[in-house]
Design brief:
CATH superfamily of the largest domain: Response regulator
CATH class of the largest domain: Alpha Beta
Largest sheet: 7 strands, mixed
Distance between the termini: 46 Å
Number of helices: 16
Number of domains: 2
Structural class: alpha/beta
Strand content: 15-25%
Radius of gyration: 21 Å
Order of helices and strands: HEHEHEHHEEHEHHEHEHEHEHHHHEEEH
CATH topology of the largest domain: Rossmann fold
């Protein structure tokens, strides 16, 4: 694949920017920081995410998308431990960063007051809706876990045949996993016609037989997951072995499995194999099993910087690329306006990223929009399902209805 395809991202903007740049401008280096789990729990998501951030910023510098100026993003492993994240962030502040990329739900919540105190614009890898409560400086890149889980629940309600659908929630035993549970419950209370039979916080068990048999005995036909790929892959393999996976939506006596962003993607198919068939999943990202401009650009970027197929096709690689895109776009827009690049200026650029100034990365199914009252980036979701070993889109991109009803 020819690497020039990747220039689709910023070609027009780059030309306009270069024409606006003063010829005598000196080169500057803009410092950013990223702390995330490259090792430890959730590293199956953090590792490709880190590579996506690194590669896109390298691309910005190599292609001179900021003229002679460059981005220097320091990336450190925090092993999914908030104490390490906090130490990394404090050291990044000493380096003079103007933008910060965080990772986990726990550390984003734990450092929320720090972000407020130093007035640092932050984009985390966590899409927990609670990150935005009492916060001015945190911006979610895409729709929250709550919106994702509610979107899946709405699909169940609209497509289920028969009596009120019975649903179980399968969640990570952390703030990350628990995040959307209350909001899904609120959606049901607001009129979303389904019954939540059980909320299961999974452990490290390698056998889900007892849990699955219990859910079947309670007539559960749908399981919505909010965790990472590994436990979902184990559950799907066990369900397949027990003959419980529905072949058609809402099949009587069977279970249809569904999940939010970090539970799916090509990484899940690699882990679960044939057991992933008919798994439903939602995210705001374009995935490489669907042909298109976004797929071409992602694969070209990964090839340019020598990433293997696993990284190249990971939606978490796309996730990392996208947050780097947003940060670079904010810098580019500020420079185009002749502003000095500071954390305060970049914060204002994010707030202005709406309406005619919305940002359209090719990595997502909708535009990135932020404002003073809206810190959730891409509101649009896409539903995917595994068909013949690949995730394929189901229907058109959508915005869940009940997210607005429970605010």
């Amino acid at each position: 694949m020819k690497t020039y395809k990747i220039s689709i991202w910023l070609l027009v903007s780059l030309i306009a920017f270069m024409l606006a740049m003063p010829a005598s401008s000196g080169a500057k280096v803009y410092k950013l920081g990223l702390s995330l789990a490259i090792t430890g729990p959730t590293s199956d998501a953090g590792n490709p995410y880190a590579k996506g951030v690194e590669d896109y910023f390298r691309y910005v510098n190599d292609m001179k998308l900021l003229g002679n100026d460059t981005i220097d993003c320091t990336i450190r492993d925090d092993k999914y431990e908030t104490a390490i994240t906090k130490r990394n962030f404090e050291e990044y502040l000493d380096m003079g960063i103007v933008f910060y990329l965080n990772y986990s739900t726990g550390s984003t919540l734990g450092l929320k007051r720090d972000f407020e105190e130093v007035k640092m614009p932050v984009i985390p890898a966590s899409f927990h809706a609670g990150n935005l409560e009492d916060s001015n400086y945190i911006f979610l890149p895409i729709a929250s876990y709550s919106a994702q889980a509610i979107g899946l629940a709405e699909y169940v309600v609209k497509n289920h045949k028969g009596k009120t659908p019975k649903v179980a929630l399968f969640v990570h035993p952390s703030a990350f996993g628990r995040g959307p549970v209350e909001d899904v419950q609120k959606a049901v209370a607001a009129g979303l016609g389904m019954e939540i039979v059980e909320v299961v916080e999974h452990g490290k068990d390698l056998d889900n037989t007892a849990m699955l048999q219990r859910l079947k005995s309670k007539d559960v036909q749908y399981v919505i997951s909010q965790t990472v790929q590994s436990p979902v892959a184990v559950m799907l393999k066990d369900a397949s072995r027990l003959g419980l996976v529905a072949k058609t939506f809402g099949e009587k006596g069977k279970i249809t499995f569904m999940g939010c962003h970090y539970t799916g993607g090509n990484d899940l198919v690699a882990l679960a194999g044939d057991a992933a068939e008919n798994y439903y999943w939602t995210t705001s990202y374009i995935i490489t099993s669907e042909p298109g401009v976004g797929t071409d650009a992602q694969l070209a970027l990964a090839k340019r910087y020598g990433r293997d197929d696993k990284f190249a096709n990971s939606h978490n690689y796309a996730n990392g690329v996208m947050v780097a895109q947003v940060a670079a776009e904010a810098i580019k827009r500020a420079k185009t306006r002749g502003k000095e690049i500071t954390k305060e200026v970049l914060y204002e650029e994010l707030l202005a990223m709406n309406g005619m100034n919305a940002f359209y990365p090719v990595t997502t199914v909708g535009p990135v929009t932020f404002s003073k009252d809206d810190h959730q980036g891409v509101d649009t979701l896409q539903l995917y399902a595994v068909e013949n070993g690949q995730f394929k889109s189901v229907g058109m991109p959508f915005i869940p209805e009940y997210t607005g009803k429970i605010k």
